[in-house]
């Protein structure tokens, strides 16, 4: 077992380096993440354009945004279309504590080990973090310690603006929807038709609506009154609206709001008398929960994104027709707002490994996975012998299942290895240890040796190993070491994991040591990838099953529920989707990440529980259905003492207090 | 008078070119703005880094964001602190029609003429446009025709993310405020104090609050109960809150909203019984109306911005104390969110003149001027013989008055020349022509010769000339030519302007011809700058006057009101400000742009009217007071057929339909 390093690590092998050799100067005790980021950046990071070129990107395929980050165009996908691609590795985890078990850190540490230590061509692919958690409780998401993306303050702030673009597109559609309802409440069919069509006749997006309605006429003069009304009046039933506004901030008071209370937002009362308020109760979500973000995660290119954004459903008309972004004239403008966002952002790790940061869909109502586009480009760039390490959010029951059944189904890519990250702390919690809570001192059991508790908690890990093997991938367990973990505790996990289906289980210490601390893990991943073929990969379910059958498979095969029940509302929604073209969509479960079951307190490997589907929603643009099991919160709150309290600039204008 | 050009313009003089000579290939009829942008971009724009270096920026002072735009650091301000600066020219206008009279286009055209035609070192400084109008009625704001900023689609979309940064900072503060009120409603002083101070004691931002409260203790253990409560309980009076959330979209239903309607946003009822909702009626503004944007427009550097953001007032405590961003622990985090936004963005015109795009404060409740920082850097870079052309929003009664009295007071810069843009169309409207409305065909009087109507309407122009001369600058009138204007009409304006104080009045045709069409204007500006000294510049009023005296001077000297009246609320607010340290602030009037008076229908040069001040608000961070005269709308609405309907990508993934 390796000990803490306070000296420079020397790479053990560097056959085909993707970047110049670099000896990571680690310090003990490990400084704060932002301090490490500053220290390493001030040593002189290689310009990001040199990282891009060593990765094989041509100058026209990389657009630098300052010295440390830049956009990768989608052209390598066509240029390298006939090149074989690399080994695809997904990093996932056991059900975590609220403190997180270091999946991002392991993703980065593993990539550093593969790249800087083993000399493999390697790219890490991760999500862009929301600013909500960054300034709230959780802090940044660039990894941590000596396994992080640099500079972490750029990673954690605006980056290249993708989340802002998602917000702008989402909110343009919300404004279009709300204002359209208002104009429809004020105007006759004739007036609406005349104003919308205007002098220039039907434009691109209007023709899409005409096609949807089956109206073949293209000369507005020839329209009957009925056709004018059908075209111009969307006649939205406000009770069916599922499109929320978004903000990338933890503002809990926006979860439920009433809009349209202004003196000018009134309409004529159809019953006569005073004008009535054109108000409505609705809500905001955090930006990363927008379907636009889910689309960004799953799209293949700009043209595909145009189609997906246009067919997003915001609600239904009173006669039951879908109302889409294109019906509101918005699909094109949203795509234009997202045209830079479709390109992944390239950064680098502490050991100069390339990192693609792209998309950040919320893991509880969307896929929780970074983008298809980034993984695809990266796999082409690393080539046949190379590795792409991508991260799936939440635990393997949610994030990795969605990775395989939704993301890989969309991309056609086949992973070979799943790395399951576990910590002694989380295993002890699953073994029956007391509650772990952010901001509260850990109970002593978590900092003192207790092999029995660890053993008991391994029930959680073992089930995740079994689950991932159902997808035909090799499983490597990474025990992410904390300094209070003892050799006996770690040995116990390794033994149990390896005797229960893991190809290998290894301790890693990349937080303190960088890639050197994940070298064993990297070797295990390289070896595991040799004993598996891409063709071994399989989805959990066939998309041709009925919606209820698909939900059933996930709940029983992955969560191990005894039964799945549905509210009347959910059944009604499923019945609608079965006949509206959404029946082939894969399922994106919205469920707690803290347990296999729907009860966050049920630790370990619960059985015999029920999954109650409260509601089922459709993301018609992203292309999945999301059944909601339990309470799902789409705007986190701020604590009494939020993280932003410490964030400031110092006397030299440098950022301090990001963590 | 020059005619339309359909051939290549050849520069007449090019003594000290800032960019390589370039012959602008103009077409007739003039294509759409986006078509021109595409045509000229596809001819091969010089990389923006070459524009930066020809401007004298060192490589470390310029951060490219892709090939066509980049950030200029603030270091030229120190590096060139002892270098003499250039000639400062402000472009303003008469009271416009709702269609706009081409101030931005004239700013860009004049810069093209000074740079590419007369060979002067020249920079244009303009605002970043809001996405609201871009997708609503107005369209883009990059100038137009052959006088525009390229590429216009980058200019009009996210640019380098500054507006998004303003939104993120604004909304972080809103969330902090709302959540703090909620936590204060749920927790005792002791609990609040314990949680806020935490284990690590008082941090930077908390010490600011201790200093404000006059508490000298720094050890939390020594705090009395009274001191704990005073520190931790802001005790905000909800009725005093002036801080709104923002979105950069025309979403009128957000003007007035009720927040906190969720099932979890409840607090214990102090009177016993069921929990009560923690809701509140509030509103959204468009992002550019945020005080954060006003701060960006007036700040001098990152450190100054930190102080300004921290002292922004969001409301008052029940005992009448100001509650600031720093009291909420937010000033530092907001600054960090704004750290890139403080740097101007460099782009180029159709004729390769450098353009700095920076800040875009709303002209009706803020200054409506681009940033102090950009103008300062540009003036240093062009040097003593060079020119900086900056634009002031709205008509000269608002935009240029604020430019002189607020922006120049903040920067210490002294303009030499004011260019007043007029059109025959707007002058005819002031002369009594029928109403001009967006989307409605112009009445015939606007497209046929009517010298008498033009003459009558010149009353508006003449008063703006008189007004600008009060500031000690030279006035040049630019008659922005439309193709229906006749030589006699233009001659009439030139004659009246020159016999009423203008140094010179010239016709210009830069929309159709680029810089060649503004060459006469450029010569007039160069000549005017020679006959004036910076020391001639003077403010309209002394900051030491009382608030009412300052308002009085503006209303009587500039608008020519007979009297100024105040509501009881306004008088009360003024009384508060007179004693709270805000009495020295300059005045930023919120008034219609369509008339000298508060009645948008009062055209020409109205007299004997009353200005009624409904309310007076303070922007303590930006550093001005804004008296509100009339209805001010801070979220525009969308029309039935908004601009976004036409925006899309074509088969090649290129943006179409932006105008």
UniProtKB/TrEMBL annotation, chains A, B:
GO biological process, one term: one-carbon metabolic process
Record bears the keyword rRNA processing: no
EC number: 6.3.4.3
Segments for region (Disordered): 1-31
Gene Ontology MF terms: ATP binding; formate-tetrahydrofolate ligase activity
Keywords from the UniProt entry: ATP-binding, Ligase, Nucleotide-binding, One-carbon metabolism
InterPro entries xref list: Formate_THF_ligase, Formate_THF_ligase_CS, P-loop_NTPase
Pfam families in alphabetical order: FTHFS
CDD domains in the record: FTHFS
Ranges annotated as biased composition (Low complexity): 7-17
Domain of life the protein comes from: Eukaryota
Pathway: One-carbon metabolism; tetrahydrofolate interconversion
Official protein name in the record: formate--tetrahydrofolate ligase
Source species: Triparma columacea
Lineage of origin: Eukaryota, Sar, Stramenopiles, Ochrophyta, Bolidophyceae
């Amino acid at each position: 077992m390796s000990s803490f390093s306070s000296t420079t690590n020397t790479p053990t092998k560097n056959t085909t380096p993707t970047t110049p050799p670099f000896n990571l100067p680690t310090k003990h005790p490990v400084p704060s993440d932002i301090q490490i980021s500053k220290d390493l950046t001030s040593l002189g990071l290689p310009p990001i354009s040199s990282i891009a070129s060593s990765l094989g990107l041509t100058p026209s395929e990389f657009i630098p945004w300052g010295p440390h980050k830049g956009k990768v165009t989608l052209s390598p996908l066509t240029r390298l279309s006939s090149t074989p691609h690399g080994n695809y590795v997904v990093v996932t985890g056991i059900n975590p504590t609220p403190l997180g078990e270091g999946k991002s850190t392991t993703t980065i540490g593993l990539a550093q080990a593969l790249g800087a230590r083993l000399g493999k061509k390697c790219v890490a692919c991760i999500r862009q973090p929301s600013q909500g958690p960054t300034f709230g409780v959780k802090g940044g998401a660039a990894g941590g310690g000596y396994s992080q993306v640099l500079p972490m303050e750029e990673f954690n702030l605006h980056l290249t603006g993708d989340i802002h673009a998602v917000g702008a597109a989402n909110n343009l559609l919300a404004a279009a929807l709300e204002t359209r309802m208002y104009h429809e409440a004020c105007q006759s069919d004739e007036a609406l038709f005349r104003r919308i069509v205007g002098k220039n006749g039907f434009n691109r997006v209007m023709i899409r609506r005409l096609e949807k309605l089956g109206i073949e006429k293209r000369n507005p003069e020839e329209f009957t009154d009925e056709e004018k009304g059908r075209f111009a009046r969307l006649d939205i039933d406000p009770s069916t609206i599922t499109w929320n506004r978004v903000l990338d901030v933890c503002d809990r008071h926006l979860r439920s709001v009433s809009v349209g209370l202004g003196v000018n937002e009134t309409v004529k009362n159809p019953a006569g008398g005073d004008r009535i308020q054109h108000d409505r109760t609705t809500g905001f979500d955090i930006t990363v929960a927008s379907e636009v973000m889910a689309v960004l995660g799953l799209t293949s290119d700009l043209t595909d994104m145009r189609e997906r954004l246009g067919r997003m459903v915001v609600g239904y008309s009173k006669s039951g027709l879908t109302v889409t972004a294109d019906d509101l004239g918005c699909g094109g403008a949203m795509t234009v707002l997202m045209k830079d966002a479709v390109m992944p952002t390239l950064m680098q790790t502490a050991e100069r490994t390339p990192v693609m940061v792209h998309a950040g869909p919320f893991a509880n109502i969307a896929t929780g996975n970074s983008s298809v586009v980034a993984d695809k480009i990266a796999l082409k760039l690393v080539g046949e012998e190379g590795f792409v390490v991508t991260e799936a959010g939440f635990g393997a029951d949610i994030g990795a299942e969605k990775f395989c059944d939704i993301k890989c189904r969309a991309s056609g890519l086949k992973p070979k290895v799943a790395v399951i990250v576990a910590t002694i702390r989380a295993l002890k919690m699953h073994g029956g240890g007391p509650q772990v809570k952010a901001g509260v001192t850990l109970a002593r059991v978590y900092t003192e040796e207790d092999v029995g508790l660890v053993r008991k908690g391994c029930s959680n890990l073992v089930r995740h190993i079994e689950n991932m093997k159902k997808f035909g991938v090799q499983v490597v367990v990474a025990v992410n070491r904390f300094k209070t973990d003892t050799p006996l505790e770690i040995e116990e996990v390794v033994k149990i994991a390896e005797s229960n289906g893991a190809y290998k289980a290894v301790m890693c210490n990349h937080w303190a040591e960088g890639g050197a601390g994940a070298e064993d893990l990297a070797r295990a991943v390289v070896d595991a990838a040799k004993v598996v073929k891409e063709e071994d990969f399989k989805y959990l379910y066939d998309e041709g099953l009925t919606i209820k059958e698909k939900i059933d498979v996930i709940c029983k095969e992955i969560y191990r529920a005894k039964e799945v029940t549905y509210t009347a509302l959910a059944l009604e929604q499923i019945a609608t989707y079965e006949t509206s073209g959404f029946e082939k969509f894969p399922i994106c479960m919205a469920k707690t990440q803290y347990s296999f079951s729907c009860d966050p307190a049920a630790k370990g490997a619960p059985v015999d529980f029920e999954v109650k589907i409260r509601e089922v929603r459709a993301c018609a643009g992203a292309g999945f259905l999301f059944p909601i099991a339990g309470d799902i919160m789409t705007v986190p709150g701020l604590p009494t003492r939020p993280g932003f309290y410490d964030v400031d600039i110092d006397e030299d204008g440098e950022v301090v207090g990001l963590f």
